[in-house]
Amino acid sequence: MCGAPANQVDHVVPGDDHSDANLQALCQWCHTHKSSSEGGTAAALTRVRTDKPKPAHPALED
């Protein structure tokens, strides 16, 4: 990704697909950065939303 010499192998699409088409060579920094981003995205999908719906303005209620 950055052009530095690659020393890590990464899954393009995370999961159990270990085919050559789903693997790419990355430097350690790019691999760590990409994996961290994917982990954050996955964690966000599992979080429970706790925000409450905003009440309508009293003048707009029927």
* Unreliable parts: none
Largest sheet: 2 strands, antiparallel
Query: Mean of the pLDDT scores?
Result: 88
Relative helix content = 25-40%
User: Which series of helices and strands comes N to C?
Assistant: EEH
Question: Judging from the principal axes of the Cα atoms, what is the shape?
Answer: elongated
Given the helix and strand composition, which structural class is it?
alpha+beta
Lateral arrangement of strands in the main beta sheet: 1-2
End-to-end Cα distance: 56 Å
Radius of gyration: 21 Å
Q: What's the total count of β strands?
A: 2
Strand content: 5-15%
Count of alpha and pi helical runs? 1
Write structural notes for this entry:
- The protein is α+β, with helices and mostly antiparallel strands and 62 residues long.
- It has a domain of 42 residues.
- It is 31% helix and 13% strand.
- It is built from one helix and two strands.
- Strands 1-2 form a two-stranded antiparallel sheet.
- The longest helix has 19 residues.
- The radius of gyration is 21 Å and the shape is elongated.
